[in-house]
Amino acid sequence: MSLHAALSYERPRQRMVGEQIQARGIHDERVLAAMRTVPRHLFVDPALVSRAYQDASLPIGSGQTISQPYMVARMTQLLELQGHERVLEIGTGCGYQTAVLSRLCRRVYSIERIAPLHERARQNLRAARHANVMLKCADGRLGWEEYAPYDAIIVTAGGFASELWLQQLKTGGMLLLPEGENGAHRLVRRTKLAHGINEEYFDACTFVPLLEGVESSLSRK
Ligand code: SAH
Q1: I need a labelling partner for 2 at 20 to 30 A (CA). Which of 14, 17, 173, 199 fits?
Q2: Any idea where the domains of the chain sit in the sequence?
Q3: Nearest CA residue ID for atom 23, ligand 1
Q4: Best residue among 135, 168, 211 to mutate for probing ligand 1, ranked by most atoms within 8 Å of CB
Protein backbone atom coordinates (compact mmCIF):
# COMPACT_ATOMS: atom_id res chain seq x y z
CA MET A 1 0.00 0.00 0.00
CA SER A 2 1.32 3.47 -0.87
CA LEU A 3 1.93 6.01 1.87
CA HIS A 4 -0.81 8.17 0.43
CA ALA A 5 -3.33 5.33 0.54
CA ALA A 6 -2.36 4.61 4.15
CA LEU A 7 -2.72 8.24 5.25
CA SER A 8 -6.02 8.71 3.47
CA TYR A 9 -7.56 5.83 5.45
CA GLU A 10 -8.94 4.44 2.22
CA ARG A 11 -9.08 0.84 3.40
CA PRO A 12 -10.70 1.38 6.80
CA ARG A 13 -13.27 3.62 5.11
CA GLN A 14 -14.19 1.02 2.47
CA ARG A 15 -14.37 -1.62 5.19
CA MET A 16 -16.63 0.64 7.29
CA VAL A 17 -19.06 0.97 4.37
CA GLY A 18 -19.07 -2.76 3.63
CA GLU A 19 -19.26 -4.15 7.15
CA GLN A 20 -21.23 -1.54 9.07
CA ILE A 21 -23.43 0.09 6.47
CA GLN A 22 -24.15 -2.16 3.49
CA ALA A 23 -24.27 -5.24 5.71
CA ARG A 24 -27.04 -3.60 7.74
CA GLY A 25 -29.17 -2.90 4.70
CA ILE A 26 -28.28 0.58 3.48
CA HIS A 27 -28.71 0.28 -0.30
CA ASP A 28 -28.99 3.83 -1.71
CA GLU A 29 -25.98 3.91 -4.06
CA ARG A 30 -25.53 7.66 -3.75
CA VAL A 31 -25.44 7.43 0.04
CA LEU A 32 -22.92 4.56 -0.11
CA ALA A 33 -20.73 6.53 -2.54
CA ALA A 34 -20.75 9.58 -0.25
CA MET A 35 -19.84 7.46 2.78
CA ARG A 36 -17.00 5.88 0.78
CA THR A 37 -15.63 9.32 -0.08
CA VAL A 38 -15.98 11.69 2.89
CA PRO A 39 -12.80 11.47 5.02
CA ARG A 40 -14.34 10.87 8.46
CA HIS A 41 -10.88 10.90 10.11
CA LEU A 42 -10.52 14.60 9.26
CA PHE A 43 -13.61 15.44 11.34
CA VAL A 44 -12.57 13.79 14.61
CA ASP A 45 -10.10 14.94 17.22
CA PRO A 46 -6.47 14.18 16.18
CA ALA A 47 -6.13 11.93 19.24
CA LEU A 48 -9.05 9.78 18.02
CA VAL A 49 -8.07 9.45 14.35
CA SER A 50 -7.27 5.75 14.72
CA ARG A 51 -10.89 5.18 15.88
CA ALA A 52 -12.56 7.32 13.21
CA TYR A 53 -13.85 4.34 11.19
CA GLN A 54 -15.00 2.23 14.14
CA ASP A 55 -18.63 1.22 14.57
CA ALA A 56 -19.27 3.87 17.24
CA SER A 57 -20.00 7.47 18.04
CA LEU A 58 -16.99 9.45 19.35
CA PRO A 59 -16.57 12.53 21.56
CA ILE A 60 -15.98 15.80 19.69
CA GLY A 61 -15.62 18.14 22.69
CA SER A 62 -18.13 20.32 24.58
CA GLY A 63 -19.91 17.14 25.72
CA GLN A 64 -21.07 16.31 22.18
CA THR A 65 -20.47 13.37 19.81
CA ILE A 66 -20.02 12.57 16.14
CA SER A 67 -22.75 10.04 15.29
CA GLN A 68 -21.96 6.39 14.53
CA PRO A 69 -21.31 5.90 10.77
CA TYR A 70 -24.35 3.62 10.37
CA MET A 71 -26.68 6.22 11.90
CA VAL A 72 -25.34 8.92 9.55
CA ALA A 73 -25.98 6.63 6.57
CA ARG A 74 -29.39 5.53 7.85
CA MET A 75 -30.63 9.08 8.40
CA THR A 76 -29.23 10.25 5.07
CA GLN A 77 -30.92 7.39 3.21
CA LEU A 78 -34.27 8.25 4.85
CA LEU A 79 -34.08 11.73 3.29
CA GLU A 80 -34.17 10.15 -0.20
CA LEU A 81 -32.08 12.97 -1.70
CA GLN A 82 -31.74 13.16 -5.47
CA GLY A 83 -29.40 16.11 -5.89
CA HIS A 84 -31.54 19.20 -6.40
CA GLU A 85 -32.57 19.70 -2.75
CA ARG A 86 -31.84 22.44 -0.26
CA VAL A 87 -31.45 20.84 3.17
CA LEU A 88 -31.48 22.37 6.66
CA GLU A 89 -29.48 20.51 9.31
CA ILE A 90 -29.94 21.20 13.04
CA GLY A 91 -26.80 20.23 15.02
CA THR A 92 -23.67 20.68 12.88
CA GLY A 93 -21.37 19.16 15.51
CA CYS A 94 -18.04 18.48 13.80
CA GLY A 95 -19.62 18.81 10.35
CA TYR A 96 -19.34 15.18 9.23
CA GLN A 97 -23.04 14.63 8.52
CA THR A 98 -23.02 18.06 6.84
CA ALA A 99 -20.22 16.93 4.53
CA VAL A 100 -22.07 13.72 3.60
CA LEU A 101 -25.26 15.69 2.85
CA SER A 102 -23.37 18.27 0.80
CA ARG A 103 -22.40 15.55 -1.68
CA LEU A 104 -26.00 14.50 -2.16
CA CYS A 105 -27.97 17.73 -2.51
CA ARG A 106 -27.67 21.23 -3.92
CA ARG A 107 -27.04 23.14 -0.72
CA VAL A 108 -26.84 22.45 3.02
CA TYR A 109 -27.67 25.04 5.67
CA SER A 110 -26.45 23.85 9.06
CA ILE A 111 -26.95 25.33 12.53
CA GLU A 112 -24.93 24.60 15.69
CA ARG A 113 -25.63 26.15 19.11
CA ILE A 114 -22.10 25.69 20.61
CA ALA A 115 -19.72 28.31 19.23
CA PRO A 116 -16.43 26.33 19.45
CA LEU A 117 -18.02 23.41 17.59
CA HIS A 118 -19.46 25.73 14.96
CA GLU A 119 -15.95 27.15 14.41
CA ARG A 120 -14.38 23.71 14.19
CA ALA A 121 -16.97 22.54 11.69
CA ARG A 122 -16.17 25.61 9.62
CA GLN A 123 -12.49 24.66 9.56
CA ASN A 124 -13.20 20.98 8.90
CA LEU A 125 -15.50 21.76 5.99
CA ARG A 126 -13.09 24.29 4.54
CA ALA A 127 -10.31 21.69 4.66
CA ALA A 128 -12.55 19.24 2.82
CA ARG A 129 -13.57 21.97 0.31
CA HIS A 130 -17.34 21.96 0.61
CA ALA A 131 -18.53 25.05 -1.25
CA ASN A 132 -22.26 24.35 -1.06
CA VAL A 133 -22.50 24.56 2.74
CA MET A 134 -23.65 27.50 4.86
CA LEU A 135 -23.14 27.42 8.61
CA LYS A 136 -24.43 29.52 11.47
CA CYS A 137 -24.16 29.54 15.23
CA ALA A 138 -27.67 29.86 16.67
CA ASP A 139 -30.50 27.99 18.36
CA GLY A 140 -31.63 25.61 15.64
CA ARG A 141 -35.08 25.31 17.23
CA LEU A 142 -35.83 28.58 15.43
CA GLY A 143 -34.91 27.07 12.06
CA TRP A 144 -33.32 29.38 9.45
CA GLU A 145 -36.11 31.54 8.11
CA GLU A 146 -33.95 33.46 5.64
CA TYR A 147 -33.50 30.51 3.26
CA ALA A 148 -36.82 28.72 3.87
CA PRO A 149 -38.64 26.77 2.59
CA TYR A 150 -36.42 23.68 2.57
CA ASP A 151 -36.87 20.36 0.77
CA ALA A 152 -35.71 18.49 3.88
CA ILE A 153 -34.80 19.19 7.50
CA ILE A 154 -32.60 16.78 9.46
CA VAL A 155 -32.09 17.09 13.22
CA THR A 156 -29.05 15.35 14.71
CA ALA A 157 -29.85 15.97 18.39
CA GLY A 158 -32.64 14.16 20.24
CA GLY A 159 -35.79 15.86 21.49
CA PHE A 160 -39.14 17.09 20.27
CA ALA A 161 -39.82 18.97 17.04
CA SER A 162 -40.09 22.72 16.95
CA GLU A 163 -43.22 23.96 15.18
CA LEU A 164 -41.07 26.29 13.10
CA TRP A 165 -39.43 23.35 11.32
CA LEU A 166 -42.62 22.15 9.67
CA GLN A 167 -43.45 25.75 8.79
CA GLN A 168 -40.08 26.14 7.06
CA LEU A 169 -40.54 22.96 5.01
CA LYS A 170 -41.88 22.84 1.44
CA THR A 171 -45.05 20.88 0.72
CA GLY A 172 -43.75 17.39 -0.02
CA GLY A 173 -40.68 18.04 2.13
CA MET A 174 -39.47 15.77 4.95
CA LEU A 175 -38.52 16.45 8.56
CA LEU A 176 -36.35 13.73 10.11
CA LEU A 177 -35.47 13.69 13.80
CA PRO A 178 -34.62 11.42 16.74
CA GLU A 179 -37.71 12.02 18.87
CA GLY A 180 -38.04 11.39 22.58
CA GLU A 181 -36.41 12.29 25.88
CA ASN A 182 -33.74 11.15 28.37
CA GLY A 183 -31.60 9.52 25.73
CA ALA A 184 -34.38 7.20 24.47
CA HIS A 185 -35.20 8.31 20.96
CA ARG A 186 -36.84 6.95 17.86
CA LEU A 187 -36.27 8.20 14.33
CA VAL A 188 -39.42 9.81 12.99
CA ARG A 189 -39.94 11.11 9.47
CA ARG A 190 -42.76 13.59 8.90
CA THR A 191 -43.71 14.45 5.34
CA LYS A 192 -45.56 17.73 4.89
CA LEU A 193 -48.56 17.10 2.63
CA ALA A 194 -50.88 19.66 1.04
CA HIS A 195 -53.39 18.76 3.75
CA GLY A 196 -51.80 17.29 6.83
CA ILE A 197 -48.70 15.33 7.70
CA ASN A 198 -47.62 11.75 7.07
CA GLU A 199 -45.71 10.25 10.00
CA GLU A 200 -43.41 7.20 9.90
CA TYR A 201 -41.40 5.72 12.77
CA PHE A 202 -38.06 3.91 12.33
CA ASP A 203 -35.04 2.86 14.46
CA ALA A 204 -34.74 3.28 18.22
CA CYS A 205 -31.57 5.28 18.89
CA THR A 206 -29.71 7.48 21.37
CA PHE A 207 -28.59 11.02 20.62
CA VAL A 208 -27.20 13.93 22.63
CA PRO A 209 -30.07 16.23 23.66
CA LEU A 210 -31.54 19.04 21.64
CA LEU A 211 -31.05 22.09 23.86
CA GLU A 212 -32.21 25.69 23.84
CA GLY A 213 -30.17 28.85 23.35
CA VAL A 214 -26.55 29.37 22.33
CA GLU A 215 -23.33 28.45 24.21
CA SER A 216 -20.42 30.73 23.49
CA SER A 217 -17.58 29.11 25.44
CA LEU A 218 -16.37 25.68 26.45
CA SER A 219 -18.40 25.47 29.66
CA ARG A 220 -18.42 21.66 29.53
CA LYS A 221 -15.74 19.25 28.40
N1 SAH B 1 -24.22 15.75 12.87
C2 SAH B 1 -23.23 15.88 13.92
C3 SAH B 1 -23.76 15.31 15.21
C4 SAH B 1 -23.42 16.19 16.34
S5 SAH B 1 -24.22 15.82 17.87
C6 SAH B 1 -21.93 15.25 13.47
O7 SAH B 1 -21.88 14.57 12.44
O8 SAH B 1 -20.91 15.48 14.14
C9 SAH B 1 -25.58 16.95 17.84
C10 SAH B 1 -25.23 18.41 17.84
O11 SAH B 1 -26.45 19.15 17.95
C12 SAH B 1 -24.34 18.88 18.97
O13 SAH B 1 -23.20 19.48 18.47
C14 SAH B 1 -25.21 19.87 19.74
O15 SAH B 1 -24.49 20.97 20.28
C16 SAH B 1 -26.16 20.33 18.65
N17 SAH B 1 -27.42 20.93 19.13
C18 SAH B 1 -28.20 20.54 20.18
N19 SAH B 1 -29.26 21.36 20.30
C20 SAH B 1 -29.16 22.28 19.30
C21 SAH B 1 -29.95 23.40 18.90
N22 SAH B 1 -31.06 23.77 19.55
N23 SAH B 1 -29.54 24.11 17.82
C24 SAH B 1 -28.42 23.78 17.16
N25 SAH B 1 -27.62 22.75 17.48
C26 SAH B 1 -28.00 22.00 18.54
Answers
A1: 17
A2: 3-205
A3: 140
A4: 211
